[in-house]
Design brief:
Layout (H helix, E strand, L loop, with lengths): L6 H5 L12 H20 L13 H8 L3 H9 L12 H18 L3
Length: about 110
């Protein structure tokens, strides 16, 4: 026996239930909800930083720490970055700014 666990502690360990009991109606509702969410993501990405984006300059400032105009100017200096199959260079720069801005906001004083 492992010296770190007592017999009483080992007796308290119960197997994990690897399934969920659902009625056919609950399952159909869950599948419908998931399908609707996926459809929404296909038609409109959650955060879109393309020039035609509906994000306002306030959204840019809140998420990235810079205005939309300043973000557009920053993108002009990213000639070395290329779009990939996973993300555009605008999205890559936005992700970097979000990370930098988040660290600055939560850094203790």
């Amino acid at each position: 026996m492992n010296s770190k666990f007592s017999e009483a502690a080992l007796a308290e360990i119960h197997p994990h239930k690897d399934y969920y009991d659902a009625t056919p109606e609950e399952l159909m509702e869950w599948i419908g909800n998931l399908s609707n969410r996926l459809r929404c993501l296909e038609t409109k990405p959650p955060l879109d930083y393309n020039p035609t984006s509906e994000l306002s300059t306030e959204d840019y400032e809140l998420l990235l720490g810079v205005s939309r105009d300043n973000f557009d100017k920053l993108i002009e200096f990213t000639n070395g970055l290329k779009n990939s199959a996973n993300r555009s260079k605008r999205k890559a720069v936005a992700i970097l700014l979000i990370k930098i801005f988040a660290v600055e906001v939560i850094r203790p004083f």
